[in-house]
Amino acid sequence: MLSVGIIILSCFWLAENTDVTPQEAFKMLQNPSTYLVDVRTISEYVFVGHPEMATNIPLLFWSENKQKMEANENFIEDIKAKFKPEDTLIFMCRSGGRSTKALSLLKANGFENVFNMKFGFEGEKDSQGYRSKNGWKNSGLPYTYNLNEDLVYRFK
After folding, report:
1. Which residues pair with 28 in a beta bridge?
2. What is the pLDDT of residues 76-119, one digit of tens each?
3. 133: helix, coil or strand?
4. What is the CA radius of gyration of the chain?
5. Report field, pTM of the whole predicted structure over 0.90
6. Which among 154, 150, 155, 156 has a CA at the least distance from the CA of 52?
7. Architecture of the domain spanning 19-138
8. By CB neighbour count within 10 A (0-12 exposed, 13-18 middle, 19+ buried), where does 23 fall?
9. In whole angstroms, what separates CA 153 from the centre of its chain?
């Protein structure tokens, strides 16, 4: 009876726990139906670097006119154009905030196999204010500044 309870609890934990570390994400990405979606701005993707396999679909855009971030009104449609609802998607941003929002939006729109890569690409700030803790980049995982035209966001 105890073992049945443990199995039920572990299934519940797996269903509810959508955060993965960068190392866990890297392992998951070895599966060809798992994709990494970078929801940072195009500028962040291009100038800060990105994992080679990351598809850039920004959740927000920088508005020069308004001097603030604005929502990508086509975010859900952009995701649906690239991925199937049964695909496994891992969302990533700078440190985990935007990717958590992206995950919630996709869950509400029929995507069930979605994960948030906690700590994001750059990670948390250290005591000096630098992003030198955890994150994809600080974990020694492969990244690039090279651009693959199939993975960089294109405005419609």
Report:
1. none
2. 999 999 999 999 999 999 988 899 999 999 999 999 999 999 99
3. strand
4. 16
5. no
6. 150
7. 3-Layer(aba) Sandwich (3.40)
8. middle
9. 14
